[in-house]
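Sequence in, structure out. Go.
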Amino acid sequence: MSAFDKVIGYEREKEELYQLCDMAKNSEKYAALGVKLPRGILLHGVPGVGKTLMASALVEEMGRVCYTCRKDKANDAFMDTIRNVFAEAKAHAPSVIFLDDLDKFASDSDLRNPEELIAVQSGIDEIKEADVFVIATANEIRELPRSLRRPGRVDRILEICPPNRKEAVEIVRHYLSDKKVAKDVTAE
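Output:
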């Protein structure tokens, strides 16, 4: 069973994530073809579409040790957390860094270059030569500076859109499967 089985629908997005897993697990095969694993991926879209679920499945499927960073501390302590996450991931490569809700990292989003996002950029630059893959999620991609979204820092950007009607029915059916519901209630 694949970790991606937890993600209902989203076949196009899962195909791209499977490809990244294959590249991470079979780097020699890809290197022979002149292809290497991108440095990272940014999953963005409206809240509630499953970005964190997809990122978690990607981490699990890659089978690497993961260092997760979420904004859950005051600013100074959070800056230390960002630096420590990148240092630990580099020291224990091959690894993955998961930056969940990256657009929420900045304490003052009115600043042009918030220090938290500069710290992330610096961290990515410092792990350039290490076998560390970065996965980030964001609701508002416009909140992130272009310098952070450019190739060489985050090589792939994948928009996660709300599910289409068919996928939405599959998701509802999945969550109703173990529930007791009236006979006239259907996933549709």
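Check: The radius of gyration is 18 Å. The longest helix spans residues 75-91.
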